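Q: How would the structure tokens look for this protein?
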Amino acid sequence: MKQTSIMIVGVGGQGSLLASKLLGGLLVDAGYDVKVSEVHGMSQRGGSVVTYVKYGDEVFSPIVCDGEADIIISFEKLEAARYAKCLKKGGTIVVNAQMIDPMPVITGAVSYPDNILDELSKKGVAIDAVDALELAMKAGSAKAVNIVLLGVAAKYFDIPFERWEDAIKKSVKPAFVELNQKAFKLGYEH
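A: Here is the predicted structure in token form.
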């Protein structure tokens, strides 16, 4: 019985809840058994957040352990490094190339690590990096980074583009559908 495990990681306030809701709904509509976790971590703005989405013929738990994630969608580079141990061999991290300073960096206690993505690549981690903030701004709003990243990640799923567009319609308020579909398309075409 094949299962696919996805982790969505980032910091509070980046829209990981919407991303996991959209992805979960899309997969249910595609006929899979789907489990989506609650958010773990500090969900207020700035704290580390992780959400698990697992789908397949039959899924009993959404939790993804070390070495089990097929895809990690990371809203920030440091979060990609933090959760890289969860990626299975042959998996991919879709990552926003943006840096968001965690509290210890903001207070000056530590500095933001250099060359995070290069270091992960040297360890054999497959990385699909994109400046999602730039593409979100091109779509019309910095808040669409999450949807841009879903667009990039969509190429790792066997689900037609049109179904993703339908999932966006079902998941966002009508006033924001066009913007989010544009953001998704920009990520998808990256």
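The chain has one domain: 3-188.

Residues 16-29 form the longest helix (14 residues).

Upvote if useful.
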